[in-house]
Amino acid sequence: MDDEDETVYVTLICDGRGYDVVLLDCGPREMDVVRAVRRLTGLSLWHSRVLTRQAPVTVMKSWPQDEADRAVAVLGSAGARAEAREEPESDESTAPPP
Fold first, then answer.
1. Fewer CB under 10 Å: which end of the chain, C or N?
2. pTM of the model
3. Across 5-54, where does the E strand assignment appear?
4. pLDDT truncated to tens, each residue of the chain (98 aa)?
């Protein structure tokens, strides 16, 4: 490494809170919802079906609000009930329960 080379480290700070996309109920069109989950998550068709049948379940974690709202709209158009939930604020000063 030359004396002129300089390594710069950057810390990215995200001000916005993340949103989780929660599938509440797949409704009567299960296969449409499975395909929508597959498109959103990139999971295989089998894994998407398993995930869908576990409703209510978190499908996507820590997404920006606009992306989470889009995912909820995609799931809704497939016949599912879904919502975007704001992640709870993690308080590092609080000890976890025993």
1. C
2. 0.73
3. 19-25
4. 555 667 776 655 556 678 999 999 999 999 999 999 999 999 999 999 999 999 999 999 999 999 999 999 999 999 999 999 998 766 544 445 55
